[in-house]
Amino acid sequence: MARSRVQATVLARLLNSVPQPVYVLDDELTVIFVNRACVDWLGPAAEGILGSRAAYHSEPEVSGPQSVAAGLCPPPEVLGGSEVSATVPRAGDRGQVSYRQARFLPVGARPDDTFAVIAILETEDLPQPATDTTQSREPSATELHERIERFRREAAGRYRADWLLGKCPAIRRVRRQVELAAASRASVLLVGPSGSGRRHTAGAIHYRGTPDSAGTLVPLACSVLDGDLIRSTVTALVSGDVFADESAHGTLLLNDVDELSDEVQAELAAEFVDRPLAMRLIATAKQPLVALARKERYREDLAAALSTITVELPPLIQRREDIPLLSQLFLEEANARGARQISCFTPEALDALHGHGWPGNIAELAQVVAQAHGQTAGPRIGVDDLPEQIHFAAHAAARPPREEETIVLDEFLGRVERELIRRALGRSKGNKAKAARLLGMTRPRLYRRMQQLGLLEE
Amino acid sequence: MTSTRTARLIVCERTGRWAAALRMELAEAGVRVWETRSLAECWETLAAAPGNFVVVELIAATADDLLGKMVGLEHRFPRTRVAVVADRSLAEYEWLLREAGAVHFTCSLRQLAPLARAACRHLAQVPTPRQGLAERIWAGLPWRG
User: Fold this and answer.
1) Predicted confidence band at B70 (pLDDT cuts at 50, 70, 90)?
2) Which of A23, A238, A318, B90 is deepest in the core (most CB within 10 A)?
3) Residues A119 and A45 reside in one and the same domain
């Protein structure tokens, strides 16, 4: 014991004498050694770093040694036994960040049994990204303003009301409502199935008329973002903290607003209901919010606040007569994007498009036409140029039913058990007692099963 | 809308540091991260699985290219979602990129948890290609490597 302590001291002295910063992490990513060069590089921030975990975290309030240690976190491949190079950040006194290239060496008996990671850093910092003018230069106010203006002009061209072309009564009504909505600052709810053009219609309302003064459009994806993030963004926008003067013209677009949790609904109601808003509100949903509120599946006050004008976008199958017109529109768009110019569709191709079920609605049609445009060799899009999904649908009725799937139960369960034991052992880095706990069995029983399944020989 | 492959989480960046940090956040979720090094390569992969979740690193030199691609994305691959990560010096681009369709924007390697959760929710919502019973059981087993 005493001898090993002496050797450890010698090793530490040796590592402290090298010019490269070196640090060592244990298998739980705790910092267990930092050499002198590394302490010098990290500066005062290194104080107290021993014992901190070098793990990424997301809490913004984390600071001090824990924050510094997080920067030392190695790429996860190292814990799988691979030697990896990566950059290591260090925050300076004034918040500036510098980086050094580092080699991470796994230490362990086997690739899946890493018990420590040694990191050896270069002696010089990498060039500062902020000074690299082509890669990440801070934009000047003029440059950014020009970029925004250019973007909005292009967006205004792209978000025309073309997707609302058509002769059927439902789409004519939609066109009238969109005109009305674009001319007012009232809140608008766009209701329709997935792919029916809700996002496009929102863009058409926002950019209508004078794109230069349209202000910022801020879409929020309510179906994927955290409730906290939605609430904090809305609060910042509504309070005018983000855009100051410009927000008077901007639009907050709440996508899939029918998927908000009850809690976030309550918080948004507090922001929107009976309060004057600087920004226009547009929301999209698969079902009318008022109808959901009637079934007590949505807050009534929020539903009313978001639905001053409700526009119901019909699914494409309810406007089949518009398919030829829309197909030609998307073909022209594809022509405009590239050098290839295709004039039109053959009558057979139009028949196939007309007969399709369009579960993805108008967005699916746009995608099908874009794919066919890329496929076709001739001057017109023929039925063979259409993607597989159109053919599958056309021939579905003629196809024999799928053969019934069968499973040989014992064999399949054996495979599942073998796989789960392998995964549990991998997760516990080969430690059978830990693996047995993960699997809810005793260690001897795990051992017996491994023997029976032939896993001990692997 | 057919897809030939299950939707993926794709990270498009120069160095691999954002992907490494995201992998740490996603370790428990068992979501695999695919990496590409250029916008062109990244956009090519979208055709095979239009429901991908893409995390793109913003670089000042290619900002216009990214903006153009993002606006076109909504029409070409409406099921794809994009989040943007960037160096802090490019934080001013946040609202422009959101306007172009970015669902999330962050300049911090240490604040990727909300982005990781958004990616997981998105991937869970994308319909997967039809699987048999055995494939579904297999896909549901815990402790993926």
Assistant:
1) confident
2) A23
3) yes
The verdict on a CB contact (< 8 Å) between A62 and B110 is yes
> Considering the domain boundaries, does residue A144 fall inside one?
no
Distance, CA of A46 to CA of A315 (rounded, Å): 61
> What is the DSSP secondary structure assignment for residue B56, as one 8-state letter?
E
Alpha carbon distance B120, B60 (integer Å) = 28
Better pLDDT: A28 or A458: A28
- Residue A296 and residue A322 in one domain: no
**Helical residues (DSSP H) of A295-428, grouped into ranges:** 300-306, 323-337, 347-355, 361-375, 388-395, 409-427
Task: Decide if A367 and B1 are in contact by the 8 Å CB cutoff.
Answer: yes
Q: pLDDT at residue B125 above 50? A: yes
**Residue A440's CATH number:** 1.10.10
Does A6 touch chain B if contact means CB atoms closer than 8 Å? Answer: no
State the best of A78, A136, A406 to mutate against chain B, taking most chain B CBs within 10 Å. Answer: A136
Between the ranges A59-73, A198-212, A397-411, A418-432, where is the mean pLDDT highest?
A418-432
Q: Nearest-CA neighbor of B83 among A130, A339, A219?
A: A219
Judgement on whether residues A330 and A380 belong to the same structural domain of the protein: yes
Q: Residue A145 has what pLDDT?
A: 78
pLDDT at position B9 is: 93
Same domain, A77 and A108: yes
Give dist(CA A272, CA B24) in Å, integer: 37
CB proximity A394 to B under 8 Å: no
Question: With an 8 Å Cβ cutoff, is A419 touching chain B?
Answer: yes
Instruction: Return the exposure string of A356-380: e unless at least 16 CB atoms fall within 10 Å of the residue's CB, then b.
Output: bebbbbbbbbbbbbbbbbeebeeee
A-chain residues within 8 Å CB-CB of B93? 139, 144
At residue A183 the predicted structure's pLDDT band, cuts being 50, 70 and 90, is confident
Q: Among B17, B71, B143, whose Cβ lies nearest the Cβ of A427?
A: B143
Domain-embedded: residue A17: yes
**From the CA of B110, how many Å to the nearest CA of chain A?**
5
Residues of A in contact with B75 (CB under 8 A): 158, 200, 333, 363, 366, 370
**Beta carbons of A407 and B112 less than 8 Å apart:** no
Least confident of A23-32, A76-85, A324-333: A76-85
Distance CA A44, CA A40 (A): 8
**Domain range for residue A358?**
318-398
Model pLDDT, residue A426: 86
Which whole number is the average pLDDT over A43-55? 79
- Residue B1 is nearest to which of A55, A225, A364, comparing CB atoms? A364
Same domain membership, residue A326 and residue A265:
no
Contact B17 A87 (CB under 8 A): yes
- Give the CATH number for residue A287: 3.40.50.300
Of the residues B95, B105, B112, B130, the best mutation for testing chain A's interface (the one with the most A CB atoms within 10 Å of its CB) is B95
Domain spans in chain B, listed from the N-terminal domain onward: 9-139
Identify the CATH class of B9-139: alpha beta
Tokens coding A75: 């790429």
DSSP H/E element including A285: strand A280-285
Contacts of B69 in chain A (CB under 8 A): none
ipTM for the whole complex:
0.84
User: Does residue A406 sit at the B interface (CB-CB below 8 Å)?
Assistant: no
